[in-house]
Amino acid sequence: MIALDKDSWDEHIPNSKGWVLVDFWGPRCKPCLELMPAVESLAEKYNDQMTFYSLDTSKAMRLAMAQGVMSLPVIAFYHNGEKKDELSGNFNAQDVENKILELLG
User: Is this structure's pTM higher than 0.90?
Assistant: First the structure.
């Protein structure tokens, strides 16, 4: 997974090709921290089909809000730089993998 910040966002996401997953998380978000190892495993499993990023929203609050992230956790999916789907609120690692398979299918 590639860690993004407010400075590297524009370099990676808007001009991305293919599918991209962005894990919006925060250091005080317990569900985010619990989900992170599973998302990292999914990144290893699907890295040839989708690019995986993470963004610490505590360091990029305005950027997160501009992406429609108002609460955590959020996993957002972008295709060719455009936000297409997201998981937010109460979801688990299996939900993330199911969404990946649906989008790649």
Answer: yes
Is residue 29 annotated as part of the catalytic site, yes or no? yes
User: Of 46, 51, 54, nearest to 17 (Cα)?
Assistant: 51
What residue ranges define each of the domains in the chain, with the CATH number in brackets?
A: 7-80 (3.40.30.10)
Q: Are 22 and 78 in contact (CB under 8 A)?
A: yes
Closest listed residue to residue 77, CA positions, set 42, 51, 95: 51
Catalytic residue among 4, 13, 32, 42: 32
- Options 13, 29, 87, 100, the catalytic residue: 29
How many C-alpha atoms does 86 have within 13 Å on its Cβ side? Answer: 17
- Is residue 61 annotated as part of the catalytic site, yes or no? no
Residue where the block lists tokens 């690692």:
93
Residue pair 24/15 in contact (Cβ under 8 Å)? The answer is no
Q: What is the pLDDT of residues 9-36, one digit of tens each?
A: 999 999 999 999 999 999 999 999 999 9
